[in-house]
Amino acid sequence: MATVTLKPTMTPTIMFEAFNITPDAFAGKTPAQIAALEGREGKIKVT
Q1: φ, ψ at 41 (rounded to 5°)
Q2: Higher pLDDT, 23 or 2
Q3: Helical residues (DSSP H) of the chain, grouped into ranges
Q4: What are phi and psi of 12, to 5 degrees?
Q5: Which long-range contacts (C-beta less than 8 Å, at least 24 apart) are formed by 7-16?
Q6: Which H helix or E strand runs over 41?
């Protein structure tokens, strides 16, 4: 199993939600596919 380290590129101004960032969501994906997973800062989608 490879190690994946996530680092924020900016400080969120409001709560950041990333419910789909889990080991199961990463399984079998390339680094580019993992980077494309969405999160939300409030109502705004971010990758």
Answers
A1: -110, 100
A2: 23
A3: 23-26, 31-35
A4: -65, 140
A5: 12/41, 13/41, 14/41, 14/42, 15/41, 15/42, 16/40, 16/41, 16/46
A6: strand 39-41
Q: How confident is the model at residue 41 (pLDDT cuts 50, 70, 90)?
A: confident
In the block, tokens 């409001």 appear at: 14
pLDDT in tens, 21-37: 888 999 999 989 988 88
Q: Is the CB of residue 29 less than 8 Å from the CB of residue 38?
A: no
Between the alpha carbon of residue 31 and those of residues 3, 12, 34, 42, the distances in Å are 11, 23, 5, 25
